[in-house]
Amino acid sequence: MKKFDADGLGESLLRGFAGRTSRRSLLSKLGLALVAAPAFPLLPVSRANAAKPDRSPEGKTAFARAAQTKDDTECNYWRYCAIDGALCSCCGGGIHSCPAGAQPSPVSWVGTCINPDDGKAYLIAYRDCCGKPLCNHCFCDNADRETQIYTPQLNNDIIWCFGTDSMQYHCSTAVLVGAAQ
Amino acid sequence: MKKFDADGLGESLLRGFAGRTSRRSLLSKLGLALVAAPAFPLLPVSRANAAKPDRSPEGKTAFARAAQTKDDTECNYWRYCAIDGALCSCCGGGIHSCPAGAQPSPVSWVGTCINPDDGKAYLIAYRDCCGKPLCNHCFCDNADRETQIYTPQLNNDIIWCFGTDSMQYHCSTAVLVGAAQ
Amino acid sequence: MTLAAARVLSSLTILALMTASSAVRAQEGETSEVSKMEPPKPEWVFVRGGFGSEGTSIYDTKTGKMKGMVNTSASSDMALDPTGKFYYVSETIWTKGNRGTRQDMVAVYDAIDLKLQADINIPDRLLVGERKQNFIISDDGKWGFVYNMSPASSVNVVDLTKRKFVKAIELPGCAALMPNPAVGFSALCSDGSLATVTVGGAKPVITHSAPFFSATGDPIFENFQYDKAKQQTVMMSYTGLIYTATLGATPTVAQPYSIQAAAGYAAADTKPLAVDWYPGGRQPMALHRPSGELYVLMHMGEYWSHKAAGEEIWVLDTTSRKVVRRFPLKIPAAHIEVTQGAEPMIFLNEEEGGNGIILDGKTGKEEHKIERAGGGMAYTMPAS
Amino acid sequence: MTLAAARVLSSLTILALMTASSAVRAQEGETSEVSKMEPPKPEWVFVRGGFGSEGTSIYDTKTGKMKGMVNTSASSDMALDPTGKFYYVSETIWTKGNRGTRQDMVAVYDAIDLKLQADINIPDRLLVGERKQNFIISDDGKWGFVYNMSPASSVNVVDLTKRKFVKAIELPGCAALMPNPAVGFSALCSDGSLATVTVGGAKPVITHSAPFFSATGDPIFENFQYDKAKQQTVMMSYTGLIYTATLGATPTVAQPYSIQAAAGYAAADTKPLAVDWYPGGRQPMALHRPSGELYVLMHMGEYWSHKAAGEEIWVLDTTSRKVVRRFPLKIPAAHIEVTQGAEPMIFLNEEEGGNGIILDGKTGKEEHKIERAGGGMAYTMPAS
User: Fold this and answer.
1) B124 known ligand binder
2) Which pairs of positions does the record mark as disulfide bonds (chains A, B) (predicted)?
3) DSSP 3-state helix, strand, coil percentages of chain B (rounded to 5)?
């Protein structure tokens, strides 16, 4: 099995930073692993012809309006605004715990979800748990601010099992990173 | 991939025939590959406490009474009296043809089915087609005279892909061997 | 998380902070964790995914909740370690999925962290829709027996303590293994006998009982029930005859009796054009060992309907030889298993819709419904 | 049948005749055969099994019958050879299923006998729910481009004539590949530009168009439609803006127009708390290239519902920029594809129930229903 090459990645990042790669593409690469940073607000997006969408907590999506904070085994639990897959909470794991024998991916896609209790936006890292067959429960596919693979850190179709011993997808967690600004 | 060892099998058969193995167990081994012989009538079955079941053409099973001879893509086609799996006729193959790229197993389980057109019993070799992912159509599970693995040539749960390049199960055919006596 | 992954994460966090230090209040962040299992409990049920599916889900029958999953590959066989320390998976994997080099092995998973401990290579094994009887463990947890047909019939003996393959024993004409603590294992044979294999000596010794059933006329379901405490195996034939074998160096098989007769009907038989209640399914029965009650999936039909899903559960008291309870099912089920505690819980796999159902074994009351529980064989931990 | 297998069979037949010569009238026996395929036809649709499933089933949209299956492993990407000689599968297989050594390759299957011709080893590729744009073939069938993210973004260039990997090209910030016959391939980027990669030279040259869309505000679906004859790609954003890129060494992108406006509505936008018809699904559109008609799955909803299944098919004439037909669907569909002959046939994967539906492209009339057709991405042979 191919292991995640930490040194290789570091080198690639540094090469990028020092050399020809623009800040945009560095951020794009970085974004892949920016579980501790809200990736899309950092992207210097050039907008050709669309108004800036309202991303304030007030600009609630259909998901956010129906979200709840009590039951993390339901697809409408507030943190799941951009999750795609089986909920680890239904598979023997928890909201930020992999089921026994699975391994959390150190890198992930991210979402910005609104907690209905305080109306604030939080950054959520959707860490896949890897190395076991698909858990066949609680499939959810929410897509708030979810984009395509050219913005990979915001895409929830990718099998986010980089750096794990196995890339087999088991289930997904929703780890609270912090308040989004 | 482990290939079917023809010479090994022959040797084993001869050893069995010549040596300590009884005729019963030789026949049992042989039965595995007796696609050209009705296996169960040959087994010298010792009956302890059950009446001999009626195996005459008149002794029709529920399957035989409802069987038809027109459409080999339906589970009640007469030859399918003991088939278990996807019908190759629904997968790009035919009643005795594997779909392109699949490989027929040279050994198989067997059934004795009654043709409603002439009321006679025929020996059918259920040859699995192997080496492609499961064909997801026309699943049938008929069980006339189907037994357990200790009588393997009459068991339809075994993946009958011995001697093929790949043991992946794709679909099953029903090859007419001849009239049963 | 691996050490390497942790290093990546920490170095990336630093980079992230360099470029985005104000964007996140990092102190609020959670860390990712990995759950651990308890040792296998009597109230758990282990449910295979079904033909071609991977993974065996573990559910708590008291709550209906999933506890975890054992990594079972397609066409593998799982066995529970009687000592509760490991889950064993005998499996066959090609290096390129459906092509490449064949590898047969027994994978060893720790029962607490569910991590792979070892792959024990074995020569070969039979690929078949799930069968419990193709991979069994001795009562003391020290020996594994893996059935093989390639296409000659044999059994691979695996030393689970040393984690190595020991030898293959030829077993012509027989299959469907059960532990036989006195000597090694026993098996059913196509001549209607029970074979007993003495494993310990320099050469294996195989003896046969007198034939007692018809392997083609009225076969015994492989889904027989071995009772470690009594060293007995309760078996059932297609017509519903119940056979009890007492194991040992020279096993004995008691005269069979009819489950239909135990319910007040005439015994069923093999004749065509006769309708009766018959046992059937892919896992047609389960024995609650502490009480000796046998839970059987029964359906109305004609002979050779032995794979038909059950419309009722009949609970047969094997001591009084009476059917003491009958539970009609809303949706027919092809698999039944029962937990081995004092309060037995029944697990069923519904034939249509893919739900798993948990019933109270005493009352038949539906306690939980588990969507997509898994379509395959169910297991419970044997009484210790 | 292999030669070895044939030998087994013939020697066994002899043995069988020795022991059972009178039991069978051998002259009646059939032989087993293996079907062959025709070269891929415009009226065929290729349907993936869906996430985690193996196999791509081939159906004739005229008859609704299955013709065969391409051996696609889970998480693989399939590409159709424009010359019709091969099916290519870029796939990733570990030597022990979910563990062992990782192997990335492009498997080559002959279009007539569907047998594996070669495995072309490549360094790595991205694992993701099915995407056509992650594995594309040049118009002449000579080059394969396999997208990779590990997690840096790059493209593996494969010489399909020599059947060997040539080189990997770093492609930071971009993904979703389309052929660009002039130079190599183009791709969409997170800065809203179209990148164009010149592959032929000693060093790859990457140029970017001016940004023309917002990758996070109103992303363009990766399921864009490349038209070889026009050397154009028709693209659509989450709000329903239609972009047309004319490829070449320096691609140009025309001003977009709104599909809702083309149907007489106001254009949809990204504002919260507004309801509109939006495009959506996992394969939301298909271009009938001979007519320039774009078939789009549309649903009513709010913004960020881009994965929702379609409730209607809107047929957009990309020449007149008018929606010329609307077909309401009985059951919402998440995948749409259309055949490329003069009489287009629509293939849909219903969201509930797993059926494939074939509709007449002109009338919307349901012609065939295929049970369990496959839950994934659908492909048709591009017009030759």
Assistant:
1) no
2) 75-140, 81-113, 88-171, 90-138, 91-135, 98-129, 130-161
3) 20, 25, 55
Find out whether B158 is annotated in a ligand binding site: yes
Task: Give the residue extent of every domain in chain D.
Answer: 71-211
Grouping H, G, I as helix, E, B as strand and the rest as coil, residue B93 is coil
Chain A residues within 8 A of C38 when measuring between CB atoms? none
Question: Would you state the structure tokens that stand for residue D253, as one six-digit string?
Answer: 């992108």
- Nearest-angstrom CA–CA distance, C10 and C14: 6
Please answer whether residues D52 and A134 qualify as being in contact, where contact means their C-beta atoms are separated by less than 8 angstroms: yes
Strands (E), C190-240: 194-198, 205-208, 225-227, 232-236
Are C270 and B53 an interchain contact pair (Cβ–Cβ within 8 Å)? yes
Radius of gyration of chain C (CA): 23
Q: Which of A128, A141, A144, A165 is catalytic?
A: A128
What is the rounded distance in angstroms from the CA atom of residue D312 to the CA atom of residue D285?
A: 12
List of E strands, C49-204: 56-60, 66-70, 77-80, 86-94, 102-110, 116-122, 135-137, 143-149, 153-159, 164-170, 174-180, 184-189, 194-198
Q: Which of D97, D182, D87 lies closest to D135, judged by CA?
A: D87
For the domain made up of D71-211, give the CATH fold.
Answer: Methylamine Dehydrogenase; Chain H (2.130.10)
Question: What ipTM was assigned to the predicted interfaces of this complex?
Answer: 0.89
Using alpha carbons, select from C304, C289, C335, C296 the residue that is nearest to residue C239.
C304
| Contact of C75 with C127, CB cutoff 8 Å | yes
Per the CB < 8 A criterion, the answer to whether D44 and D57 are in contact is: no
d(CA D293, CA D320): 10
Q: Which residues of chain B make contact with D12, given a CB cutoff of 8 A?
A: 30, 33-36, 107
B102 backbone dihedrals φ, ψ, rounded to 5°? -90, 165
Distance CA C129, CA B113 (A): 23
* DSSP letter for each residue of D203-234: S-EEEEPPP-S-TTTSPBPS--EEETTTTEEE
The rounded distance, in Å, linking the Cα atoms of C348 and C59 is: 12
Residues C234, D273: Cα–Cα separation, whole Å: 65
Structural domains in chain A, sorted by start: 6-40 (no CATH), 62-179 (2.60.30.10)
Is residue C284 reached through a cis peptide bond, with omega within 30 degrees of 0 on the bond before it? no
Please name the residues in contact with D332: beta carbons below 8 A apart, sequence gap of 6 or more.
D299, D308, D309, D310, D311, D350, D351, D352
> Which are the contacts of A5, defined by CB distance < 8 A and separation ≥ 6?
none
Question: What one-letter code names the amino acid at D27?
Answer: Q
For D15, the closest of B13, B92, B173 (CB atoms) is B13
The helix (run of H) or strand (run of E) holding residue C259 is helix C259-262
Neighbours of chain B (3+ CB pairs under 8 A): C, D
Q: Which of A32, A46, A84 is nearest to D215 (CA)?
A: A46
User: Is the dihedral angle over the CA atoms A91, A94, A99, A102 positive or is it negative?
Assistant: positive
Distance separating alpha carbons of residues D271 and D259, to the nearest angstrom:
17
Task: Check if the beta carbon of residue D211 is closer than 8 Å to that of residue D193.
Answer: yes
Question: What's the number of CA atoms in the CB half-sphere (13 Å) around residue B58?
Answer: 1
Instruction: Kindly write down the DSSP assignment for every residue of D148-179, as one continuous string.
Output: EESSSEEEEEEETTTTEEEEEEE-TTEEEEEE
* pLDDT, tens digit only, all 181 positions of chain B: 233 222 322 222 222 222 222 323 333 333 333 333 333 332 233 333 233 444 555 568 999 999 999 999 999 999 999 999 999 999 999 999 999 999 999 999 999 999 999 999 999 999 999 999 999 999 999 999 999 999 999 999 999 999 999 999 999 999 999 998 6
